[in-house]
Amino acid sequence: MEILVVLEHNNQTIHRMSWEAIAAGQSLGKDLDLSTAILIMGSDVSTLTEETATKDVDEVLIAEHPLLETYTADGYARTLAQVVESEQPTYVILGHTYMVRDFLPKVCAILKRPLLGDNISYHIKDSRPVFIKQIFMGKLLAEVLPQGNQPYLITFQSAAFQSDSVRRGTGAAIRNLSITLTNEIIKTRSEDPFLETTIDVDLSSADIIISVGRGIGKKENIHLVKELAEVMGAQIACSRPVVDAGWLPPYHQVGSSGQTVSPKLYFALGISGAIQHLVGMKGANNVIVINKDPNAPFFEIADYGTVGNILEIIPKLTEAIKKG
Amino acid sequence: MKICVLIKQVPSSDALIKLNNDSTWIKEDTVVFAINESDSFALEEALQIKEQTGEGEVVVVSLGPDRVQRAIREALAKGADRGIRIKESFPYSSDPFEIASLFAAAIKDDKFDLILSGLQSDDLGSGQTGVILGELLGMSTATLVVETKLSGESIRVKRELESGWFQWVTMPLPASITIQSGINSPRYASLKGIMSAKKKEIRLIEKKELSGSIPSLQSIEHVYFPQKTKRTEMIEGSVDQVVEKLTEIIQRNY
After folding, report:
1. Is B214 left (phi over 0), alpha (psi -120 to 50) or beta?
2. What pLDDT is attached to residue B243?
3. Which residues of B190-219 are buried (b: 16+ CB within 10 A; e: fewer)?
4. How many CA atoms within 13 Å lie on the side-chain side of A68?
């Protein structure tokens, strides 16, 4: 195969972004007329194989080993490096998930081959793909080319491709690969994942979300947002720096490390609109943005925007809505 | 405990970005540079670990042109013991693999117990250098770390997973760990710190002195501003006019 898509799973379900990665692999395969395979790593992946093999790919490759029962960066990196060396794909495609960010740079170091991460799309130029990624926190886009010999390791950002566009096939061939791993290779010992706090704000079902960013300035100003939320019947969300500063508890956070929301209105106050935040609210119907920086990337996706000081605007807006 | 902190100097978050004439990169001369945010948290974590163990040193390592000297000096003022800078006039022509290879060649003889770096840079955001460096030096690695607990020859770290999940991972030293923003409260430099930083050593290394480096594995061909996907109605005027218009939009639609 020439395109290898690597699946991420928790032994029962396949990660949402892995379906998007399969869609990316199918798209690239079609554009470049290359064959595509899916790789599943784990200790017993039989329950995942069948579902995967219904997709329109040439092969499903299985790399099973007892040491892959739980994820470790060492185990996954060594396994993927072995598969890539024996199968010689041109492109290795993955979702830009937290797990992939943890182990894929190790594969880059082992194989000494390029890792182009967090792409939002690609286009074909002179019969080879040029990958597009956001730089400077989304203020600019860059066209990036891998250099030197294949394989090229490529990851795509959440929602760069649509999982519902994955084409079904007529039943892919399944092939087992043999992997050599030893206990000594796996240096880390992982404990069970846990949830930090119980989430008592359900942002996922909110119609109106007022989201506050660093621009609010200090914790003492948060009450201004709470008062506006009250008169608008809105839930309060925030960007990561607000949580980091301790101005709001973590469960209010929207973005790649927080919640994913899709309200009718997303009202962003003093948030610049870094990629990590925007991936959590892409599904909003309408977006209003107030920011003092006219170049804030958030304006790019706003329906209504105003350049101004939120500390001046919020109290007056609260009063005006209360009166109306 | 010998701790290395990787620091990158990046355009500050409110920098006004302009493209160069052939749209291959930005105009750097009009941009204000600052220490990458998550690298500041990595530095603070290193300083705290040194203070807890009561011995050892914190060494900041960076790559770039003369402007980077200021970032290293700032880290020294906060309490780092010495600095190392690999001289590179055009750091953005190097990819994470090349930079990590250069760092590996520059620090391999220092035999660090711990390498800390920010989880990703606010300019290119690759999030690869710390992990690649750890792998090249045969260290254990972990990313997106929000808490560290050192015990003897190993370190236990709390990793951030997706959607509010976390996980504790234990690994032997030496280790290279990437730090998530918010892990601690970075200190300010004291006047005494600023004064003593002037006497601290910053070792300069020419790129060509470092063997084992290989060319960049990727290149930025072209940069451009994103095309607007939505038609944005900008509301202008005085604060009162803006408030009036916003009130009308909100009451009409929601």
Report:
1. beta
2. 95
3. eeebeeebeebebeebebeeeeebeebbbb
4. 24
Mean pLDDT, chain B cut into blocks of 10 residues (254 residues total): 97 89 94 96 98 95 97 98 96 94 96 97 96 98 97 95 88 98 93 96 93 81 86 93 94 83
Q: Tokens standing for B197?
A: 């930083």
User: How near does any CA of chain B get to the CA of A308, in Å?
Assistant: 8
- A140 to B181: CB separation less than 8 angstroms, yes or no: no
Return d(Cα B47, Cα A244) in angstroms, integer. Answer: 19
Residues spanned by the domain of B154: 2-225
**Mind spelling out the 3-state secondary structure of B20-45?**
CCCCCCECHHHCCEEECHHHHHHHHH
B145: CATH = 3.40.50.620
What count of other Cβ atoms lies within 10 Å of the Cβ of residue A262? 16
How high is the ipTM of this complex? 0.91
Which of B164, B145, B37 lies closest to A252, judged by CA?
Answer: B164
Query: What is the rounded average pLDDT of the residues A37-48?
Result: 96
Contact yes or no for B229 and A301 at CB 8 A = yes
* Measured CA distances, B224 to A37, A126, A136, A214, B20 (Å): 33, 20, 11, 26, 10
Alpha-carbon gap, residue B137 to B17, rounded angstroms: 36
Residues 144 to 203 of B: which have CB under 8 A from any A CB?
Answer: 144, 159-172, 181-182
Contacts of B54 (CB under 8 A, 6+ apart): none
CATH 3.40.50.620 maps onto chain A at 3-185
Chain B residues in contact with A287 (beta carbon < 8 A): 230
Superfamily of domain A3-185: HUPs (3.40.50.620)
As a whole number, mean pLDDT of residues A93-113 equals: 97
Residue B239 placed within a domain: no
Pick the CATH number of A203-323 from 3.40.50.300, 3.40.50.2000, 3.40.50.1220, 2.60.40.10: 3.40.50.1220
- Whether A201 has a pLDDT exceeding 80, the answer reads no
B12, part of any domain = yes
Structural tokens at position A32: 């470049």
Give how many domains chain B has, as a whole number: 1
Distance CA B203, CA B207 (A): 13
Residues of chain A with CATH 3.40.50.1220: 203-323
- Out of A109, A114, A193, name the one closest to residue B167 (CB): A193
pTM: 0.86
